[in-house]
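$ ./design --mode recover --in tokens.txt
reading tokens...
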């Protein structure tokens, strides 16, 4: 573990293994942290926040360090990508692009570090000046998932450091390696010891002690709804600031005037890219009833042609899911959908490509789905698509919004007015029109309803790691009646 600028084992000496999802074999081991290790990391972060060099750095100096880190990540993107593929099984082509792109988060927030400005609001009291400043919250706990560990860490770490905080990172126990590797680059970028720390291990043993530690003032978590609810409740006991990016059951809506040459690949990308292991997956495909048959035929044909195999192979389209537990959960969801009467028109089974010992699920499409079925309401987090139909805009909106989540939505139409109407009416933090699954460091990302709290990315993200302070400056004066508030 990386604590206070040193590489340390767990105090109890225990370790745990990480398996390669393609081979199913263990390939790395990491310290299994407990509460005492977490305390050591938080104490290091607290000392760096209050006593070390970091609080004396100017905002411009923090920004320069983040820009240096951005450059180091870009230089080492291929190595980081290979480590991520071994850990989470995603396609090397996707992870290479993702690792190169994530360098932009550190450059963007490096540039923003000295752009956080206070203000002097005009007030209604003579002889008094008010200044509003924005200050870092302190020690932040950053808890990341297994599907895109480094990218989703960048969404948290870059704005947290730009704002002047210190952090303790707890990566998923399934995908620890790339975060540990990143610490070599953090050190090389010149970020002082203790500013960034990593504890490795399991949720109840390391994650919850981190969330509940009294010196932690902010928690940022990406993961499932159940864990998010538990974290939010635990953080609330100490009134910690919280950012939660949780699950989704996003509708991808295709109208009868859509360009099908774009919409069909868009639907495939929305659910089968990353083997469906993304919170923004377009897992509910809403088709206008007039184009259902043609669209479904084209969709099945394109999905059927996808090649399952080694994620390191550039010819592979569908990689394994990240864990054995997730593999089994997906198959259970598929059987539930069959039991509810949904019609499986593609896939629906486990798969074992030649040479693999890992966790594959065939691209799966269910037709004839009703929105009250579990397959349409519950997040599967795998390559499983539910197809529903609608008659008009009103019904499309009703179906799309009739779910507990509100993370994202897609709309495919050539009618600009319809696109604007739908974007206003859909209950989602992100709405894509004639595209899907795009994100950027420049624009806010966050969920509605049970999809989370707060925002990541864009200018909005850095404010999640700052707290305002109101400073009143008055001329010396005699107050007529000190018992009455001015």
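writing sequence...
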């Amino acid at each position: 573990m990386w604590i206070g600028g040193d590489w340390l084992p767990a105090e109890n000496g225990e370790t745990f293994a990480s398996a390669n999802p393609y081979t199913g074999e263990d390939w790395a081991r990491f310290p299994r942290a407990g509460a005492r290790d977490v305390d050591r990391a938080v104490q290091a972060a607290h000392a760096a926040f209050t006593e070390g060099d970091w609080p004396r750095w100017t905002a411009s100096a923090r920004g320069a360090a983040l820009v240096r880190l951005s450059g180091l990540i870009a230089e080492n993107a291929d190595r980081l990508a290979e480590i991520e593929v071994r850990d989470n099984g995603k396609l090397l082509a996707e992870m290479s692009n993702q690792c190169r792109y994530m360098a932009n988060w550190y450059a963007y927030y490096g540039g923003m570090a000295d752009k956080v400005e206070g203000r002097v609001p005009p007030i209604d009291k003579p002889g008094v000046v008010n200044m509003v400043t924005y200050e870092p919250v302190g020690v932040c706990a950053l808890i990341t998932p297994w599907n895109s560990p480094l990218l989703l860490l960048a969404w948290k770490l870059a704005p947290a450091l730009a704002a002047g905080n210190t952090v303790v990172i707890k990566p998923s126990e399934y995908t620890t390696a790339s975060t540990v590797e990143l610490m070599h680059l953090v050190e090389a970028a010149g970020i002082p010891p203790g500013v960034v720390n990593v504890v490795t291990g399991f949720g109840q043993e390391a994650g919850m002690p981190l969330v509940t530690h009294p010196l932690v003032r902010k928690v940022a978590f990406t993961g499932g709804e159940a864990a998010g609810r538990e974290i939010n409740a635990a953080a609330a006991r100490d009134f910690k600031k919280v950012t939660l990016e949780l699950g989704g059951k996003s509708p991808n809506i295709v109208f009868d005037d859509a360009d099908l040459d774009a919409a069909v690949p868009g639907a495939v990308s929305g659910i089968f890219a990353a083997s469906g292991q993304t919170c923004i997956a377009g897992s509910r495909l809403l088709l206008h009833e007039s184009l259902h048959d043609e669209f479904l035929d084209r969709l099945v044909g394109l999905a059927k042609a996808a090649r399952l195999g080694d994620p390191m192979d550039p010819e592979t389209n569908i990689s394994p899911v990240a864990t054995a537990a997730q593999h089994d959960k997906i198959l259970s969801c598929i059987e539930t959908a069959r039991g509810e009467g949904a019609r499986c028109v593609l896939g629906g089974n486990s798969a074992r490509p030649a040479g693999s010992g890992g966790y594959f699920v065939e691209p799966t499409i269910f037709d004839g789905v009703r929105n009250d079925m579990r397959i349409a309401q519950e997040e599967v987090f795998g390559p499983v698509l539910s197809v529903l139909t609608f008659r008009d805009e009103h019904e499309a909106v009703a179906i799309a919004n009739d779910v507990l989540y509100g993370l994202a939505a897609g709309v495919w139409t050539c009618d600009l007015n319809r696109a604007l109407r739908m974007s206003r009416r859909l209950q989602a933090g992100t709405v894509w029109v004639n595209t899907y699954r795009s994100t950027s460091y420049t624009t806010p990302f966050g969920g509605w309803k049970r999809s989370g709290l707060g925002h990541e990315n864009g200018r909005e993200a850095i404010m999640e790691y700052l707290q305002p302070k109101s400073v009143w400056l008055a001329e010396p004066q005699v107050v007529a009646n000190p018992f009455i508030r001015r």
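exit 0
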